[in-house]
Design brief:
With about 140 residues, the chain is mostly beta strands. It is built from three helices and eleven strands, in the order E-E-E-H-E-E-E-E-E-E-H-E-E-H. The longest helix has 6 residues.
Length: about 140
C-alpha cells in the first residue's frame, strides 16, 4: 500500500482539493448512464482522506437515480473533480475523485493505473462489464 497526498482541481481551478490516495489499489470506470456519458474515471477513498480546499459555494450539486451520490460541479467551468456518497452495500460513506483531475500525473502513470470496470447500469457492481464495453468506457 502506497498512500500519497495528491492535489486536484476542476479545469479552471475554482474547485480545489487534496486527498490521500493509494492509486495502486485501483481505479474504476462504470457503465451506468451517468458515468458512461461523462467518461468518469475515478479513485474512491474514505471521507477522512479528502480535504476540500476551496469554498463549497463554488459548486452546484447534481444527483440522479438513487440519489446516493452528490456530484458537485464547478459553477464556472462545469468540471466535476469529485463526488460524495453513502452506499452501505459498498462500504458506507465515500468520496470519489476524478483521476484525470489529479495534478501532476504523467500520461504513463495514468496508463499504468489498474482499472476495474463496474456494471453499474444493471446494479451488478460486483461483476465487471464485457471486454467490448471496456473499450468505450
Amino acid at each position: 500500500m502506497s498512500v500519497q497526498t495528491y492535489a486536484g482541481s476542476c479545469h479552471c481551478g475554482n474547485v480545489k482539493f487534496e486527498a490521500d490516495i493509494d492509486l495502486s489499489a485501483g481505479t474504476g470506470k462504470c457503465n451506468c448512464s451517468f458515468c458512461s456519458k461523462t467518461r468518469n474515471w475515478s479513485a474512491t477513498i474514505k471521507p477522512e482522506a479528502f480535504r476540500l480546499l476551496s469554498d463549497a459555494d463554488a459548486t452546484i450539486d447534481y444527483q440522479f437515480n438513487t440519489q446516493s451520490t452528490h456530484w458537485p460541479f464547478c459553477k464556472t467551468c462545469g468540471g466535476r473533480p469529485y463526488g460524495e456518497g453513502d452506499i452501505p452495500e459498498a462500504g458506507g460513506k465515500f468520496v470519489t475523485l476524478s483521476v484525470t483531475g489529479l495534478d501532476g500525473l504523467t500520461a504513463q502513470q495514468l496508463a499504468d493505473l489498474p482499472v476495474r470496470y463496474c456494471n453499474g447500469r444493471d446494479n451488478d457492481w460486483w461483476h465487471e462489464v464485457s471486454d467490448v464495453e471496456k473499450r468505450y468506457l
